[in-house]
Amino acid sequence: MRQLLRVLVAVAIFSMTPLCAKASYIASVMTNLAPNTFEDGSRETVFDTNADGRFDTGDVIAGIVEIRLVNSNDISHPDHIYGIFSQQVASIVPNGSNFDVFFQPTTATGLTLSALTGAAQPATGIIAVYTDAAGFGATGQVGSPTISSLLSNPPAGAAGTVSIKDYASVITSNGTREMVIGVNPNQEAIAGNVDTSVSLTGPSVAQKDYFHAITTTVGSGLALPGGYSLMALLTTGQTVATIDFGLTILVSPPDVIFGNTGTGSTGLATGFQYQATLSSGAARGGSNDPTYPVYSTNGNDFTSTQNAVGGFQDNGTFQVTPTTIAPEPGSLVLFGGLACTWMVGFAARRRRQTA
Protein backbone atom coordinates (compact mmCIF):
# COMPACT_ATOMS: atom_id res chain seq x y z
CA MET A 1 0.00 0.00 0.00
CA ARG A 2 2.81 2.40 0.86
CA GLN A 3 4.44 1.76 -2.50
CA LEU A 4 1.14 2.41 -4.26
CA LEU A 5 0.69 5.71 -2.46
CA ARG A 6 4.21 6.81 -3.37
CA VAL A 7 3.45 6.07 -7.01
CA LEU A 8 0.19 8.01 -6.85
CA VAL A 9 1.91 11.05 -5.32
CA ALA A 10 4.63 10.95 -7.98
CA VAL A 11 2.06 10.70 -10.75
CA ALA A 12 0.14 13.65 -9.32
CA ILE A 13 3.25 15.80 -9.13
CA PHE A 14 4.39 14.99 -12.66
CA SER A 15 0.89 15.40 -14.05
CA MET A 16 0.93 18.99 -12.84
CA THR A 17 4.18 19.81 -14.67
CA PRO A 18 2.54 20.71 -18.02
CA LEU A 19 0.25 23.08 -16.17
CA CYS A 20 3.22 25.36 -15.60
CA ALA A 21 3.23 26.15 -19.33
CA LYS A 22 2.89 29.83 -20.12
CA ALA A 23 -0.64 31.03 -20.82
CA SER A 24 -1.27 32.87 -24.07
CA TYR A 25 -1.65 36.63 -23.89
CA ILE A 26 -4.86 36.53 -25.92
CA ALA A 27 -6.42 34.17 -23.38
CA SER A 28 -5.55 36.60 -20.59
CA VAL A 29 -7.54 39.48 -22.09
CA MET A 30 -10.66 37.63 -23.24
CA THR A 31 -13.90 36.69 -21.52
CA ASN A 32 -14.97 33.08 -21.93
CA LEU A 33 -18.31 32.14 -23.49
CA ALA A 34 -18.97 35.66 -24.80
CA PRO A 35 -18.22 37.66 -27.95
CA ASN A 36 -14.94 39.52 -27.44
CA THR A 37 -14.46 42.77 -29.31
CA PHE A 38 -11.08 43.76 -30.76
CA GLU A 39 -10.81 47.34 -32.05
CA ASP A 40 -7.99 48.06 -34.44
CA GLY A 41 -6.26 50.52 -36.69
CA SER A 42 -4.10 49.62 -39.66
CA ARG A 43 -1.53 50.82 -42.16
CA GLU A 44 -1.75 49.23 -45.60
CA THR A 45 0.38 49.09 -48.72
CA VAL A 46 -1.26 48.44 -52.08
CA PHE A 47 0.60 46.43 -54.73
CA ASP A 48 -0.34 47.02 -58.37
CA THR A 49 0.74 43.50 -59.33
CA ASN A 50 0.10 43.83 -63.06
CA ALA A 51 1.18 47.48 -63.25
CA ASP A 52 -1.95 48.53 -65.13
CA GLY A 53 -2.47 51.65 -63.04
CA ARG A 54 -5.77 50.74 -61.41
CA PHE A 55 -7.15 48.68 -58.55
CA ASP A 56 -8.31 45.39 -60.04
CA THR A 57 -8.30 41.61 -59.80
CA GLY A 58 -4.97 40.23 -58.65
CA ASP A 59 -3.78 43.32 -56.81
CA VAL A 60 -2.65 42.85 -53.21
CA ILE A 61 -3.22 44.84 -50.04
CA ALA A 62 -0.82 44.05 -47.20
CA GLY A 63 0.01 45.70 -43.94
CA ILE A 64 -0.13 45.71 -40.17
CA VAL A 65 -3.00 45.95 -37.69
CA GLU A 66 -2.62 47.42 -34.21
CA ILE A 67 -5.13 46.13 -31.64
CA ARG A 68 -5.86 49.09 -29.41
CA LEU A 69 -8.86 47.97 -27.38
CA VAL A 70 -10.10 44.56 -26.24
CA ASN A 71 -13.63 44.70 -24.81
CA SER A 72 -13.10 48.48 -24.48
CA ASN A 73 -9.96 47.96 -22.36
CA ASP A 74 -6.95 49.88 -23.65
CA ILE A 75 -3.97 47.58 -24.29
CA SER A 76 -2.01 49.99 -26.48
CA HIS A 77 0.29 51.62 -23.94
CA PRO A 78 2.45 49.83 -24.89
CA ASP A 79 1.00 47.70 -27.67
CA HIS A 80 0.51 44.02 -26.90
CA ILE A 81 -1.22 42.67 -30.03
CA TYR A 82 -0.48 43.22 -33.71
CA GLY A 83 -1.78 41.55 -36.82
CA ILE A 84 0.09 41.11 -40.09
CA PHE A 85 -2.05 40.55 -43.15
CA SER A 86 -1.97 39.97 -46.89
CA GLN A 87 -5.09 39.75 -49.07
CA GLN A 88 -5.54 39.58 -52.83
CA VAL A 89 -8.41 40.87 -54.94
CA ALA A 90 -10.38 37.85 -56.18
CA SER A 91 -13.16 39.73 -57.96
CA ILE A 92 -14.64 43.18 -58.43
CA VAL A 93 -18.35 43.29 -59.17
CA PRO A 94 -20.31 46.44 -60.12
CA ASN A 95 -22.89 47.46 -57.52
CA GLY A 96 -24.74 50.46 -58.89
CA SER A 97 -22.19 53.24 -59.20
CA ASN A 98 -19.88 51.47 -56.75
CA PHE A 99 -18.14 48.09 -56.59
CA ASP A 100 -18.26 44.98 -54.41
CA VAL A 101 -14.71 43.78 -53.90
CA PHE A 102 -14.07 40.22 -52.70
CA PHE A 103 -10.66 39.20 -51.38
CA GLN A 104 -8.93 35.85 -51.06
CA PRO A 105 -5.74 34.72 -49.29
CA THR A 106 -2.80 36.02 -51.31
CA THR A 107 -1.28 33.56 -53.76
CA ALA A 108 0.93 35.98 -55.73
CA THR A 109 4.54 34.85 -55.50
CA GLY A 110 6.50 37.00 -53.08
CA LEU A 111 3.44 38.64 -51.53
CA THR A 112 1.92 35.81 -49.50
CA LEU A 113 1.35 35.94 -45.75
CA SER A 114 4.27 33.54 -45.31
CA ALA A 115 6.53 35.82 -47.35
CA LEU A 116 5.54 38.88 -45.32
CA THR A 117 5.99 37.22 -41.91
CA GLY A 118 9.08 35.24 -42.89
CA ALA A 119 7.56 32.05 -41.49
CA ALA A 120 5.31 29.29 -42.78
CA GLN A 121 1.63 30.19 -42.40
CA PRO A 122 -1.50 28.27 -43.44
CA ALA A 123 -1.96 28.63 -47.19
CA THR A 124 -5.45 30.04 -46.69
CA GLY A 125 -4.44 32.44 -43.90
CA ILE A 126 -5.08 36.16 -44.28
CA ILE A 127 -4.17 37.60 -40.86
CA ALA A 128 -1.45 36.35 -38.49
CA VAL A 129 -1.81 37.67 -34.93
CA TYR A 130 1.29 38.25 -32.81
CA THR A 131 1.45 39.14 -29.12
CA ASP A 132 3.99 40.36 -26.60
CA ALA A 133 2.84 40.28 -22.99
CA ALA A 134 5.59 42.74 -22.00
CA GLY A 135 4.71 45.14 -24.81
CA PHE A 136 6.15 45.66 -28.26
CA GLY A 137 8.74 48.30 -29.02
CA ALA A 138 11.81 46.83 -27.37
CA THR A 139 14.06 46.79 -30.43
CA GLY A 140 14.30 48.03 -33.98
CA GLN A 141 11.90 50.96 -33.74
CA VAL A 142 12.23 54.71 -33.58
CA GLY A 143 11.76 55.84 -29.99
CA SER A 144 12.04 52.37 -28.45
CA PRO A 145 11.31 51.28 -25.84
CA THR A 146 9.17 54.18 -24.60
CA ILE A 147 7.30 54.62 -27.89
CA SER A 148 5.72 51.51 -29.30
CA SER A 149 2.93 52.25 -31.76
CA LEU A 150 4.00 51.29 -35.27
CA LEU A 151 1.10 53.31 -36.63
CA SER A 152 2.81 56.56 -35.73
CA ASN A 153 6.42 55.50 -35.08
CA PRO A 154 7.96 53.61 -38.00
CA PRO A 155 10.75 51.05 -37.84
CA ALA A 156 14.24 52.46 -37.55
CA GLY A 157 15.72 53.40 -40.90
CA ALA A 158 16.48 56.31 -43.14
CA ALA A 159 13.51 58.18 -44.55
CA GLY A 160 12.32 56.63 -47.78
CA THR A 161 14.05 53.29 -47.17
CA VAL A 162 11.51 51.58 -44.89
CA SER A 163 9.27 48.95 -46.46
CA ILE A 164 6.21 47.09 -45.22
CA LYS A 165 8.53 44.13 -44.60
CA ASP A 166 10.40 46.24 -42.04
CA TYR A 167 7.16 46.89 -40.17
CA ALA A 168 6.35 43.19 -40.13
CA SER A 169 9.87 42.32 -38.97
CA VAL A 170 9.53 44.50 -35.86
CA ILE A 171 6.40 42.53 -34.98
CA THR A 172 7.73 39.06 -35.71
CA SER A 173 11.05 39.78 -33.96
CA ASN A 174 9.42 40.94 -30.75
CA GLY A 175 6.22 38.90 -30.67
CA THR A 176 4.85 35.37 -30.66
CA ARG A 177 2.30 34.18 -33.18
CA GLU A 178 -0.83 33.08 -31.35
CA MET A 179 -3.53 33.09 -34.03
CA VAL A 180 -4.11 32.91 -37.77
CA ILE A 181 -7.45 33.97 -39.26
CA GLY A 182 -8.42 33.10 -42.81
CA VAL A 183 -10.51 30.91 -45.08
CA ASN A 184 -11.40 27.37 -44.09
CA PRO A 185 -9.97 25.26 -46.94
CA ASN A 186 -12.47 22.45 -46.39
CA GLN A 187 -15.84 24.05 -45.89
CA GLU A 188 -18.69 21.59 -45.90
CA ALA A 189 -21.70 22.62 -47.92
CA ILE A 190 -25.25 22.17 -46.71
CA ALA A 191 -25.66 19.48 -49.35
CA GLY A 192 -22.64 17.68 -47.92
CA ASN A 193 -20.07 18.35 -50.63
CA VAL A 194 -16.74 19.97 -49.83
CA ASP A 195 -15.23 22.89 -51.70
CA THR A 196 -11.47 23.27 -51.36
CA SER A 197 -10.99 26.39 -53.47
CA VAL A 198 -10.22 29.71 -51.81
CA SER A 199 -11.29 31.98 -54.65
CA LEU A 200 -14.07 34.15 -53.25
CA THR A 201 -16.78 35.61 -55.45
CA GLY A 202 -19.13 35.98 -52.52
CA PRO A 203 -20.57 33.67 -49.88
CA SER A 204 -22.20 30.56 -51.27
CA VAL A 205 -23.35 27.18 -50.01
CA ALA A 206 -19.96 25.67 -50.76
CA GLN A 207 -17.74 28.66 -49.96
CA LYS A 208 -19.10 30.53 -47.00
CA ASP A 209 -16.03 32.36 -45.66
CA TYR A 210 -15.55 35.79 -47.17
CA PHE A 211 -13.65 39.07 -46.97
CA HIS A 212 -15.63 41.84 -48.62
CA ALA A 213 -15.54 45.58 -49.26
CA ILE A 214 -17.94 47.93 -50.97
CA THR A 215 -16.44 51.10 -52.39
CA THR A 216 -17.68 54.61 -51.84
CA THR A 217 -18.02 57.07 -54.70
CA VAL A 218 -14.48 58.26 -54.05
CA GLY A 219 -13.10 54.74 -53.75
CA SER A 220 -14.82 53.56 -56.92
CA GLY A 221 -12.53 55.78 -58.95
CA LEU A 222 -9.57 53.57 -58.00
CA ALA A 223 -11.00 50.70 -60.07
CA LEU A 224 -11.32 52.79 -63.22
CA PRO A 225 -8.53 53.17 -65.80
CA GLY A 226 -5.76 55.28 -64.30
CA GLY A 227 -7.39 55.02 -60.88
CA TYR A 228 -4.15 54.73 -58.93
CA SER A 229 -3.39 58.33 -59.83
CA LEU A 230 -5.96 59.18 -57.15
CA MET A 231 -3.91 57.55 -54.40
CA ALA A 232 -1.78 60.65 -53.91
CA LEU A 233 -4.94 62.72 -53.39
CA LEU A 234 -6.90 60.56 -50.93
CA THR A 235 -6.51 61.73 -47.35
CA THR A 236 -7.26 60.17 -43.98
CA GLY A 237 -10.53 62.09 -43.95
CA GLN A 238 -11.82 60.34 -47.07
CA THR A 239 -13.47 56.93 -46.76
CA VAL A 240 -12.84 54.76 -49.83
CA ALA A 241 -14.70 51.61 -48.75
CA THR A 242 -16.50 49.85 -45.93
CA ILE A 243 -15.22 46.40 -45.03
CA ASP A 244 -16.66 43.26 -43.47
CA PHE A 245 -15.69 39.63 -43.19
CA GLY A 246 -16.76 36.25 -41.90
CA LEU A 247 -13.73 34.00 -41.47
CA THR A 248 -12.35 30.92 -39.73
CA ILE A 249 -9.70 30.78 -37.00
CA LEU A 250 -7.11 28.46 -38.55
CA VAL A 251 -4.60 28.60 -35.69
CA SER A 252 -5.64 29.14 -32.07
CA PRO A 253 -3.66 29.69 -28.87
CA PRO A 254 -3.09 26.31 -27.18
CA ASP A 255 -5.24 27.29 -24.22
CA VAL A 256 -8.25 28.59 -26.18
CA ILE A 257 -11.00 26.91 -28.21
CA PHE A 258 -13.13 29.21 -30.35
CA GLY A 259 -16.75 28.74 -31.30
CA ASN A 260 -18.97 30.67 -33.69
CA THR A 261 -19.49 34.37 -33.15
CA GLY A 262 -22.25 35.47 -35.51
CA THR A 263 -23.55 35.75 -39.05
CA GLY A 264 -22.38 37.82 -41.98
CA SER A 265 -23.33 41.43 -42.55
CA THR A 266 -23.36 44.34 -45.02
CA GLY A 267 -26.38 42.99 -46.83
CA LEU A 268 -24.79 39.65 -47.73
CA ALA A 269 -27.29 37.91 -45.44
CA THR A 270 -25.76 34.46 -45.70
CA GLY A 271 -27.19 33.09 -42.46
CA PHE A 272 -23.91 31.26 -41.88
CA GLN A 273 -22.12 31.39 -38.55
CA TYR A 274 -18.48 32.48 -38.50
CA GLN A 275 -15.73 32.21 -35.92
CA ALA A 276 -14.35 35.69 -36.64
CA THR A 277 -16.59 38.52 -37.83
CA LEU A 278 -16.06 42.14 -38.76
CA SER A 279 -19.28 44.01 -39.35
CA SER A 280 -18.25 47.42 -40.57
CA GLY A 281 -14.71 48.68 -40.92
CA ALA A 282 -13.81 51.88 -42.77
CA ALA A 283 -10.87 52.15 -45.18
CA ARG A 284 -9.54 55.64 -45.77
CA GLY A 285 -6.85 57.32 -47.79
CA GLY A 286 -3.43 58.10 -46.38
CA SER A 287 -1.65 60.57 -48.65
CA ASN A 288 -1.36 63.12 -45.82
CA ASP A 289 0.28 60.59 -43.48
CA PRO A 290 3.96 61.60 -43.47
CA THR A 291 5.23 58.11 -42.58
CA TYR A 292 2.80 55.57 -43.99
CA PRO A 293 1.14 54.08 -46.00
CA VAL A 294 2.04 54.06 -49.72
CA TYR A 295 1.34 52.00 -52.79
CA SER A 296 3.84 50.20 -54.95
CA THR A 297 4.45 49.66 -58.63
CA ASN A 298 7.71 47.85 -57.91
CA GLY A 299 6.25 44.44 -58.56
CA ASN A 300 5.87 41.53 -56.19
CA ASP A 301 8.47 42.31 -53.58
CA PHE A 302 7.67 43.20 -49.97
CA THR A 303 11.21 44.38 -49.32
CA SER A 304 11.24 47.02 -52.05
CA THR A 305 11.03 50.58 -50.81
CA GLN A 306 7.61 51.79 -51.79
CA ASN A 307 7.78 54.31 -54.59
CA ALA A 308 4.53 56.24 -54.60
CA VAL A 309 2.55 58.35 -52.17
CA GLY A 310 -0.77 57.12 -50.86
CA GLY A 311 -2.24 53.92 -49.51
CA PHE A 312 -4.94 52.90 -47.07
CA GLN A 313 -5.61 53.18 -43.37
CA ASP A 314 -8.61 51.66 -41.72
CA ASN A 315 -10.35 51.19 -38.42
CA GLY A 316 -12.58 48.27 -37.62
CA THR A 317 -13.99 46.14 -34.85
CA PHE A 318 -13.97 42.36 -35.11
CA GLN A 319 -15.30 39.74 -32.74
CA VAL A 320 -14.34 36.22 -31.68
CA THR A 321 -16.01 33.96 -29.12
CA PRO A 322 -14.01 31.49 -27.02
CA THR A 323 -15.94 28.47 -25.79
CA THR A 324 -13.05 27.24 -23.65
CA ILE A 325 -10.23 29.17 -21.97
CA ALA A 326 -7.95 26.98 -19.88
CA PRO A 327 -7.39 28.21 -16.31
CA GLU A 328 -4.24 30.23 -15.78
CA PRO A 329 -1.22 28.10 -14.86
CA GLY A 330 -0.99 29.67 -11.41
CA SER A 331 -4.44 28.50 -10.41
CA LEU A 332 -3.78 25.03 -11.79
CA VAL A 333 -0.51 24.75 -9.93
CA LEU A 334 -2.28 25.83 -6.74
CA PHE A 335 -4.91 23.17 -7.34
CA GLY A 336 -2.19 20.63 -8.01
CA GLY A 337 -0.40 21.60 -4.82
CA LEU A 338 -3.56 21.19 -2.80
CA ALA A 339 -4.16 17.82 -4.41
CA CYS A 340 -0.65 16.68 -3.60
CA THR A 341 -0.97 17.95 -0.02
CA TRP A 342 -4.20 16.00 0.36
CA MET A 343 -2.57 12.84 -0.97
CA VAL A 344 0.44 13.20 1.32
CA GLY A 345 -1.90 13.75 4.29
CA PHE A 346 -3.94 10.75 3.24
CA ALA A 347 -0.78 8.63 3.10
CA ALA A 348 0.25 9.79 6.58
CA ARG A 349 -3.16 8.88 7.97
CA ARG A 350 -2.94 5.47 6.39
CA ARG A 351 0.47 4.88 8.00
CA ARG A 352 -0.89 5.82 11.45
CA GLN A 353 -3.86 3.53 10.99
CA THR A 354 -1.66 0.58 10.04
CA ALA A 355 1.02 1.20 12.68
Word description of this protein:
The protein is globular and about 55 Å long. It has two domains: 1-23 and 331-355; 30-325, no CATH class. Helices cover 18% and strands 34% of the residues. The model is unreliable at 7-20, 139-147, 188-206 and 332-344 (pLDDT under 50). The chain has six helices and 18 strands. The protein has helices at residues 2-15, 25-29, 113-117, 164-174, 217-220, 329-354; strands spanning 36-47, 60-70, 73-74, 81-95, 98-105, 125-131, 176-182, 187-188, 194-195, 210-215, 239-251, 256-259, 262-263, 273-274, 276-284, 294-296, 308-309, 312-325. Helix 1 (2-15) packs antiparallel against helix 6. The longest helix is centred in the C-terminal third of the chain and has 26 residues, at 329-354. It has 355 residues and is of the alpha+beta class. A hairpin with a 2-residue loop joins strand 4 and strand 5. The strands form three sheets. Strands 1, 2, 3, 4, 5, 6, 7, 10, 11, 12, 15, 16, 17 and 18 form a 14-stranded mixed β-sheet that branches.
